[in-house]
Amino acid sequence: MPAVMTSSAQPSVPTDKPTLLSGDARLERLRSIDFSFSDVLNRRKTLIRAAWALRRHGIICLRAAAPQATIHAIQADIKRLLTEIESGDHERLNATTYLNLPDQRVLKGYNHFRDADKPVINYRVARPDGRSGSDAGMIDIFHPERLSDALRDNIAACLQEDLIRRLLLVSSLNQMAVKCRNLYLNYGVKDTRSYHCDGRSLKFKSFVYLTDVRTLNDGPYCFVPGSQRRRRLWWRSARYNRRNKLGPFEFSQLAEEQALPVFANAGDMVISCQRGAHCGHPQAASAQRAALVNMYQR
Ligand SMILES: [Fe+2]
Protein backbone atom coordinates (compact mmCIF):
# COMPACT_ATOMS: atom_id res chain seq x y z
CA MET A 1 0.00 0.00 0.00
CA PRO A 2 1.40 3.45 -0.87
CA ALA A 3 2.62 5.42 2.09
CA VAL A 4 0.95 8.68 2.95
CA MET A 5 3.28 11.27 1.53
CA THR A 6 3.47 14.99 1.49
CA SER A 7 2.01 16.62 -1.60
CA SER A 8 4.30 18.77 -3.70
CA ALA A 9 1.30 21.04 -4.36
CA GLN A 10 1.14 22.22 -0.76
CA PRO A 11 3.65 20.65 1.62
CA SER A 12 1.58 21.00 4.79
CA VAL A 13 -1.32 18.85 3.54
CA PRO A 14 -0.75 15.07 3.34
CA THR A 15 -1.83 13.41 0.10
CA ASP A 16 -1.79 9.83 -1.18
CA LYS A 17 0.35 9.11 -4.21
CA PRO A 18 0.03 6.09 -6.46
CA THR A 19 2.54 3.27 -6.66
CA LEU A 20 4.84 3.50 -9.66
CA LEU A 21 4.62 0.41 -11.83
CA SER A 22 7.94 -1.35 -12.33
CA GLY A 23 9.36 -4.58 -13.75
CA ASP A 24 7.00 -6.99 -15.52
CA ALA A 25 3.89 -5.13 -14.33
CA ARG A 26 5.14 -1.98 -16.06
CA LEU A 27 5.98 -3.85 -19.27
CA GLU A 28 2.56 -5.50 -19.28
CA ARG A 29 0.80 -2.14 -18.94
CA LEU A 30 3.04 -0.66 -21.61
CA ARG A 31 2.15 -3.35 -24.14
CA SER A 32 -1.46 -2.20 -24.29
CA ILE A 33 -0.51 1.40 -25.13
CA ASP A 34 2.57 0.89 -27.32
CA PHE A 35 2.35 1.34 -31.11
CA SER A 36 4.77 1.83 -33.98
CA PHE A 37 4.27 5.28 -35.47
CA SER A 38 4.74 4.03 -39.03
CA ASP A 39 2.04 1.36 -38.47
CA VAL A 40 -0.37 4.02 -37.22
CA LEU A 41 0.51 6.14 -40.26
CA ASN A 42 0.18 3.37 -42.83
CA ARG A 43 -2.43 0.96 -41.48
CA ARG A 44 -5.93 2.15 -40.77
CA LYS A 45 -6.55 -0.80 -38.44
CA THR A 46 -3.59 0.19 -36.26
CA LEU A 47 -4.73 3.81 -36.17
CA ILE A 48 -8.14 2.66 -34.90
CA ARG A 49 -6.54 0.36 -32.31
CA ALA A 50 -4.30 3.20 -31.09
CA ALA A 51 -7.28 5.59 -30.94
CA TRP A 52 -9.29 3.12 -28.82
CA ALA A 53 -6.32 2.44 -26.55
CA LEU A 54 -6.11 6.20 -25.98
CA ARG A 55 -9.84 6.32 -25.19
CA ARG A 56 -9.59 3.43 -22.75
CA HIS A 57 -6.26 4.06 -21.04
CA GLY A 58 -5.90 7.83 -21.54
CA ILE A 59 -2.36 7.48 -22.83
CA ILE A 60 -0.53 5.90 -25.77
CA CYS A 61 3.06 5.85 -26.97
CA LEU A 62 3.89 6.01 -30.69
CA ARG A 63 7.42 4.75 -31.24
CA ALA A 64 9.82 6.43 -33.70
CA ALA A 65 7.47 9.24 -34.71
CA ALA A 66 10.19 11.75 -35.55
CA PRO A 67 13.23 11.18 -37.81
CA GLN A 68 16.59 11.10 -36.01
CA ALA A 69 18.18 13.66 -38.40
CA THR A 70 15.39 16.11 -37.58
CA ILE A 71 15.81 15.53 -33.84
CA HIS A 72 19.56 16.21 -34.13
CA ALA A 73 18.95 19.42 -36.10
CA ILE A 74 16.52 20.68 -33.42
CA GLN A 75 18.93 19.72 -30.63
CA ALA A 76 21.70 21.73 -32.38
CA ASP A 77 19.38 24.76 -32.66
CA ILE A 78 18.46 24.48 -28.95
CA LYS A 79 22.14 24.37 -28.03
CA ARG A 80 22.84 27.50 -30.11
CA LEU A 81 19.89 29.29 -28.50
CA LEU A 82 20.99 28.45 -24.95
CA THR A 83 24.56 29.53 -25.73
CA GLU A 84 23.22 32.86 -26.97
CA ILE A 85 21.16 33.33 -23.80
CA GLU A 86 24.11 32.42 -21.58
CA SER A 87 26.42 34.83 -23.48
CA GLY A 88 24.46 37.75 -22.01
CA ASP A 89 24.18 39.46 -25.41
CA HIS A 90 20.40 39.53 -25.81
CA GLU A 91 19.99 42.22 -28.47
CA ARG A 92 18.70 39.83 -31.14
CA LEU A 93 16.52 37.83 -28.74
CA ASN A 94 15.00 40.94 -27.18
CA ALA A 95 13.91 42.03 -30.66
CA THR A 96 12.53 38.67 -31.79
CA THR A 97 11.23 36.99 -28.60
CA TYR A 98 9.88 37.69 -25.13
CA LEU A 99 12.81 36.62 -23.00
CA ASN A 100 11.60 35.95 -19.45
CA LEU A 101 14.78 35.38 -17.48
CA PRO A 102 14.64 34.39 -13.79
CA ASP A 103 15.61 37.91 -12.70
CA GLN A 104 14.08 39.86 -15.58
CA ARG A 105 10.42 39.25 -16.46
CA VAL A 106 8.94 40.95 -19.52
CA LEU A 107 5.63 39.05 -19.76
CA LYS A 108 3.36 37.48 -17.12
CA GLY A 109 0.64 34.85 -17.14
CA TYR A 110 -0.12 31.71 -19.17
CA ASN A 111 -2.74 33.41 -21.37
CA HIS A 112 -0.30 36.13 -22.39
CA PHE A 113 2.34 33.50 -23.19
CA ARG A 114 -0.16 31.46 -25.23
CA ASP A 115 -1.47 34.46 -27.17
CA ALA A 116 1.90 36.18 -27.67
CA ASP A 117 2.85 37.42 -31.14
CA LYS A 118 6.45 36.19 -30.75
CA PRO A 119 8.07 33.14 -29.13
CA VAL A 120 8.22 33.34 -25.32
CA ILE A 121 11.32 31.94 -23.64
CA ASN A 122 10.13 31.51 -20.07
CA TYR A 123 12.44 30.43 -17.26
CA ARG A 124 10.25 28.93 -14.54
CA VAL A 125 11.15 30.20 -11.07
CA ALA A 126 10.24 29.19 -7.54
CA ARG A 127 6.81 30.44 -6.49
CA PRO A 128 6.84 33.67 -4.47
CA ASP A 129 4.62 32.10 -1.76
CA GLY A 130 7.16 29.31 -1.26
CA ARG A 131 4.74 26.54 -2.22
CA SER A 132 6.28 23.69 -4.15
CA GLY A 133 5.41 22.31 -7.59
CA SER A 134 6.94 25.30 -9.36
CA ASP A 135 9.05 23.42 -11.95
CA ALA A 136 11.80 25.89 -11.04
CA GLY A 137 14.73 25.51 -13.42
CA MET A 138 12.58 24.49 -16.37
CA ILE A 139 12.75 26.54 -19.57
CA ASP A 140 9.32 26.59 -21.22
CA ILE A 141 9.41 28.01 -24.75
CA PHE A 142 6.03 28.96 -26.23
CA HIS A 143 5.73 28.97 -30.05
CA PRO A 144 9.22 27.48 -30.66
CA GLU A 145 8.32 27.01 -34.34
CA ARG A 146 8.56 30.80 -34.74
CA LEU A 147 12.19 30.99 -33.62
CA SER A 148 13.49 30.34 -37.15
CA ASP A 149 12.42 28.94 -40.53
CA ALA A 150 14.51 25.81 -39.97
CA LEU A 151 12.85 25.17 -36.60
CA ARG A 152 9.40 25.76 -38.11
CA ASP A 153 10.00 23.01 -40.70
CA ASN A 154 11.73 20.58 -38.35
CA ILE A 155 9.16 20.99 -35.59
CA ALA A 156 6.32 20.45 -38.07
CA ALA A 157 8.01 17.21 -39.19
CA CYS A 158 8.09 16.01 -35.55
CA LEU A 159 4.57 17.00 -34.52
CA GLN A 160 2.67 15.22 -37.34
CA GLU A 161 -0.41 17.30 -36.58
CA ASP A 162 -2.68 16.07 -39.39
CA LEU A 163 -2.30 12.45 -38.34
CA ILE A 164 -2.67 13.21 -34.61
CA ARG A 165 -5.85 15.24 -35.22
CA ARG A 166 -7.27 12.27 -37.15
CA LEU A 167 -6.35 9.90 -34.34
CA LEU A 168 -7.93 12.21 -31.75
CA LEU A 169 -11.11 12.43 -33.84
CA VAL A 170 -11.43 8.64 -33.92
CA SER A 171 -10.59 8.43 -30.20
CA SER A 172 -12.77 11.22 -28.81
CA LEU A 173 -15.32 11.73 -31.63
CA ASN A 174 -14.41 15.42 -31.44
CA GLN A 175 -12.57 17.70 -33.84
CA MET A 176 -9.51 18.83 -31.92
CA ALA A 177 -7.30 21.76 -32.88
CA VAL A 178 -3.77 22.71 -31.82
CA LYS A 179 -4.07 25.54 -29.27
CA CYS A 180 -0.45 25.86 -28.22
CA ARG A 181 2.99 24.54 -29.14
CA ASN A 182 5.76 24.42 -26.55
CA LEU A 183 9.29 23.23 -26.12
CA TYR A 184 10.04 22.00 -22.59
CA LEU A 185 13.68 21.99 -21.51
CA ASN A 186 14.11 20.35 -18.11
CA TYR A 187 17.56 20.43 -16.59
CA GLY A 188 17.64 18.82 -13.15
CA VAL A 189 14.10 19.96 -12.29
CA LYS A 190 13.26 18.51 -8.87
CA ASP A 191 10.30 20.57 -7.74
CA THR A 192 7.72 19.15 -10.15
CA ARG A 193 3.99 19.46 -9.55
CA SER A 194 2.39 16.40 -7.99
CA TYR A 195 -0.40 14.35 -9.66
CA HIS A 196 -3.06 16.58 -11.18
CA CYS A 197 -5.24 17.04 -14.24
CA ASP A 198 -5.22 20.04 -16.57
CA GLY A 199 -8.82 21.00 -15.84
CA ARG A 200 -11.95 18.93 -16.59
CA SER A 201 -12.54 19.93 -20.20
CA LEU A 202 -11.47 17.58 -23.00
CA LYS A 203 -7.84 18.26 -23.73
CA PHE A 204 -4.94 16.20 -25.09
CA LYS A 205 -1.21 16.75 -25.23
CA SER A 206 1.33 15.16 -27.51
CA PHE A 207 4.94 14.99 -26.31
CA VAL A 208 7.71 14.30 -28.81
CA TYR A 209 10.83 13.44 -26.87
CA LEU A 210 14.03 15.05 -28.16
CA THR A 211 16.19 13.20 -25.62
CA ASP A 212 16.05 9.66 -24.25
CA VAL A 213 14.09 9.23 -21.01
CA ARG A 214 15.09 5.82 -19.75
CA THR A 215 15.15 5.99 -15.96
CA LEU A 216 13.21 7.71 -13.19
CA ASN A 217 16.20 10.05 -12.78
CA ASP A 218 15.51 11.42 -16.28
CA GLY A 219 12.07 12.65 -15.14
CA PRO A 220 9.59 10.55 -17.13
CA TYR A 221 5.97 11.55 -17.64
CA CYS A 222 3.83 9.49 -15.25
CA PHE A 223 0.13 8.71 -15.79
CA VAL A 224 -2.52 6.71 -13.93
CA PRO A 225 -4.06 4.66 -16.78
CA GLY A 226 -7.83 4.92 -16.99
CA SER A 227 -8.04 7.80 -14.48
CA GLN A 228 -9.44 10.13 -17.17
CA ARG A 229 -12.68 8.06 -17.17
CA ARG A 230 -13.12 7.55 -13.43
CA ARG A 231 -15.37 10.29 -12.06
CA ARG A 232 -15.45 8.85 -8.55
CA LEU A 233 -11.67 8.93 -8.34
CA TRP A 234 -11.78 12.57 -9.34
CA TRP A 235 -14.54 13.41 -6.82
CA ARG A 236 -12.65 11.73 -3.99
CA SER A 237 -9.76 14.12 -4.60
CA ALA A 238 -12.05 17.10 -5.21
CA ARG A 239 -13.76 16.65 -1.82
CA TYR A 240 -10.43 16.26 -0.03
CA ASN A 241 -9.03 19.29 -1.87
CA ARG A 242 -11.97 21.47 -0.81
CA ARG A 243 -11.64 20.46 2.84
CA ASN A 244 -7.89 21.02 2.84
CA LYS A 245 -7.69 24.12 0.62
CA LEU A 246 -5.77 22.36 -2.14
CA GLY A 247 -6.16 23.40 -5.78
CA PRO A 248 -9.25 21.93 -7.49
CA PHE A 249 -7.27 19.97 -10.07
CA GLU A 250 -4.85 18.15 -7.77
CA PHE A 251 -5.26 14.36 -7.76
CA SER A 252 -4.53 14.18 -4.06
CA GLN A 253 -6.20 10.81 -3.30
CA LEU A 254 -4.48 8.11 -5.33
CA ALA A 255 -3.81 5.45 -2.69
CA GLU A 256 -4.30 1.95 -4.15
CA GLU A 257 -3.75 3.35 -7.66
CA GLN A 258 -0.87 2.55 -9.98
CA ALA A 259 0.94 5.04 -12.21
CA LEU A 260 2.88 4.22 -15.34
CA PRO A 261 6.20 6.00 -15.83
CA VAL A 262 6.58 6.34 -19.61
CA PHE A 263 10.15 5.74 -20.71
CA ALA A 264 10.92 6.73 -24.27
CA ASN A 265 13.66 7.25 -26.80
CA ALA A 266 14.30 10.51 -28.62
CA GLY A 267 11.76 10.59 -31.45
CA ASP A 268 8.97 8.72 -29.62
CA MET A 269 5.64 10.48 -29.15
CA VAL A 270 3.40 10.16 -26.09
CA ILE A 271 -0.24 11.24 -26.40
CA SER A 272 -2.11 11.81 -23.18
CA CYS A 273 -5.63 12.82 -22.14
CA GLN A 274 -5.08 15.70 -19.73
CA ARG A 275 -8.19 14.89 -17.67
CA GLY A 276 -6.25 11.93 -16.32
CA ALA A 277 -3.94 12.01 -13.30
CA HIS A 278 -0.42 12.84 -14.44
CA CYS A 279 2.83 14.43 -13.35
CA GLY A 280 6.45 14.78 -14.37
CA HIS A 281 8.71 12.71 -12.13
CA PRO A 282 11.37 14.82 -10.34
CA GLN A 283 14.74 14.64 -12.08
CA ALA A 284 18.24 13.95 -10.81
CA ALA A 285 20.38 17.12 -10.64
CA SER A 286 22.40 16.18 -13.73
CA ALA A 287 19.46 14.97 -15.86
CA GLN A 288 18.40 16.65 -19.09
CA ARG A 289 15.09 16.20 -20.86
CA ALA A 290 13.75 18.03 -23.90
CA ALA A 291 10.30 17.56 -25.43
CA LEU A 292 8.08 19.25 -28.00
CA VAL A 293 4.59 19.55 -26.58
CA ASN A 294 1.34 20.23 -28.46
CA MET A 295 -1.91 21.01 -26.70
CA TYR A 296 -5.09 19.93 -28.52
CA GLN A 297 -8.51 21.22 -27.58
CA ARG A 298 -11.94 21.57 -29.20
FE1 LIG B 1 -0.40 18.93 -16.38
Name the poorly predicted regions.
1-11
**SSE sequence, one letter per element:** EEEHEHHEHHEHEEHHEEEHEEEE
How does CATH name the architecture? Answer: Sandwich
Helix percent reads 25-40%
Radius of gyration: 19 Å
What proportion of the residues form beta strands (DSSP E)?
Answer: 15-25%
How many strands in all? 15
Write down the overall mean pLDDT.
Answer: 93
Number of helices: 9
CATH T-level fold name = Jelly Rolls
- Largest sheet data: 9 strands, mixed
| Strand numbers in spatial order across the main sheet | 4-5-13-10-15-9-8-7-6
Shape field: globular
Distance between the termini: 38 Å
What do these coordinates show?
- Helix 3 (44-57) crosses helix 8 (161-172) and helix 4 (68-87) crosses helix 7.
- The protein starts with a strand and ends with a strand.
- The chain has 9 helices and 15 strands.
- 42% of the residues are buried.
- The protein is 33% helix and 24% strand.
- A hairpin with a 7-residue loop joins strand 1 (4-6) and strand 2 (14-16).
- With 298 residues, it is an alpha+beta fold.
- The strands form 3 sheets. A 9-stranded mixed β-sheet has the order 4-5-13-10-15-9-8-7-6. A 4-stranded mixed β-sheet has the order 3-12-11-14, with helices on one face.
- The chain has one domain: q2cbj1_9rhob like domain (Jelly Rolls).
- The chain is globular and about 50 Å long.
- It binds fe (ii) ion.
- Fe (ii) ion binds at residues 196, 198, 278.
